[in-house]
Design brief:
The chain has 13 helices and three strands; from the N terminus they run E-H-E-H-E-H-H-H-H-H-H-H-H-H-H-H. By secondary structure, it is mostly helical.
Length: 358
């Protein structure tokens, strides 16, 4: 328990009293007592500072109590009806039980899921059906987003995929050379890149590069009330802001996956030709023999869905911001984390489904 005994409660001392209360709460004190017996001068600023400290204690689950109030101070608090607020904060609110916290978490997850599903349906409708009803994304906005998402990501996608192809080929060769089966490095790299690693790597790169950028951009627009201005002008933010980003990511990600697959295969070929003494034609022929059209189609279907997921999560997090500029950072982080988790979970579902079908 900490006792604070100020001599004044006014404009000059109110800020210091509030800071002392907050410092004790941050230090972990579970009860703070403010002794006003020595106070002879009080004004509204000092009273407001005391009430703010009371509310901060209540928020942290600590007890806050005012003791020794002189009669003039009590009358002043009663006139402003601040005595009720302080009395309500005297007892710490009960900590919710684990079942209540679990239920609250479940409701938040369910609410987020419903909002994401509705935004996804809206994005699909505006992107693929909207142009037929003259409600699709504007062409200039779409091409601007396509250039930012697609063209701007080519270099990093190709580089990382090429390196991943090198790594996979080296790891495969470490085991296969024991059986004299180095040529099957081409099979492993080709199938793994087209079916699994190409779409997954590209989706994670775009979630980190473009998804977080979209969430930050839309979040800034919410904070600066630009989204509200669009609604005032009778402009649907989903068509103006969400649809171009949704369409751009849904189209750009499959195209980038094709480049990623090629870069990964060429990375494996570099190891096969220069490290395993395999001929270029021999390696290429083995890769073509190992790949089926279904392998490439599987990766492209995954890429399209991953693009949908990244766009919807980024736009949802950006448009759901509540607060000031600090909320933009939180939304950006959550957009990135949520996108990657959902993409990996969707990849698991796709892999399981295609495994059972094949």
């Amino acid at each position: 328990m900490t006792t604070i005994a100020p001599e004044r409660l006014d404009r000059e001392s109110g800020g210091e009293i509030r800071s002392r209360i907050l410092d004790r709460l941050r230090a972990g004190d579970r009860e703070v007592v403010v002794d006003l017996s020595g106070v002879r001068h009080v004004d509204s600023f000092g009273a407001a500072a005391l009430v703010d400290g009371c509310l901060a204690a209540r928020k942290r689950g600590a007890r806050f109590r005012v003791a020794g109030s002189p009669e003039p101070v009590r009358r002043f608090f009663a006139t402003l009806q601040l005595d009720r607020v302080i009395a309500a904060g005297a007892a710490a609110p009960p900590r919710p039980g684990w079942l209540e916290r679990l239920g609250d978490l479940g409701l938040r997850v369910f609410d987020d899921g419903v909002r994401l599903a509705l935004l996804h349906l809206s994005g699909l409708s505006l992107t693929f059906l909207g142009p037929f009803r003259k409600r699709g994304p504007r062409a200039d906005h779409f091409f601007h987003q396509l250039a930012a998402v697609g063209t701007g990501s080519v270099g990093i996608v190709v580089l990382i995929s090429f390196i991943m192809g090198l790594i996979m080929a080296l790891q495969a060769a470490y085991q296969l050379r024991q059986f004299g089966a180095n040529i099957f490095v081409a099979d492993l790299v080709g199938v793994a890149m087209t079916r699994e690693l190409g779409p997954l790597l590209t989706a994670i790169i775009l979630a980190s590069r473009s998804g977080s950028s979209m969430a930050a951009e839309l979040g800034t627009m919410v904070v600066t009330e630009e989204v509200d201005a669009l609604r005032v002008m009778a402009i649907d933010p989903r068509r103006f802001l969400v649809a171009p980003r949704f369409a751009a990511l849904s189209l750009a990600l499959p195209c980038l996956v094709v480049l990623s697959d090629a870069a990964g295969i060429f990375g494996g070929m570099a190891v096969g030709v220069f490290g395993l003494n395999l001929g270029v034609a021999h390696y290429w022929h083995e890769t073509v023999q190992a790949l089926y059209l279904s392998d490439i189609a599987t990766g492209l279907v995954k890429a399209f869905v991953f693009g949908n997921v990244i766009a919807v999560v980024a736009c949802h997090r950006g448009l759901s911001i509540r607060g000031g500029p600090e909320a933009v950072g939180r939304a950006t982080t959550w957009a990135l984390v949520t996108s990657i988790v959902v993409v990996i979970f969707a990849d698991l579902l796709f892999t399981t489904f295609f495994y059972l079908v094949d």
